[in-house]
User: Fold this.
Amino acid sequence: MTDEPISLRAALARFDRLWSPRIVTRVNDYDVRIAKVAGEHVWHAHADTDEFFLVLEGELTIALRDGGAAGAGGRAVTLAAGEVFVVPRGMEHKPSSAAGASILMFEPTGTLSVGDRHDELPGHLDATTGHRL
Ligand code: NI
Assistant:
């Protein structure tokens, strides 16, 4: 943590790994995390928390489905830079970005990037509670 202003642009320039969130600061017991993303994440859900997304650059799609009946009631939202969206707790979701994006997430410290339940993880995905910058 720092008591100096944090440049998100500078913070984003400090890492390249995709789908590997970095903690830029904390608010009470919440992390502010940034990530670079491209391609597809996996379907996953966070049983105990909502998840806040803000798109900093590029465009992010979040596919959503109710965890009840597999595949039923699915939809997707697409967020442009400057747009925010909250995935409700328990909702299965799969972020993706065909052309790549930089995003900011706000969620309780300790929240796993791949949720509490998820599809099998491809090698390029990082199951993490957020890395130090
Ligand atoms: Ni999630």
Observations:
- The radius of gyration is 14 Å.
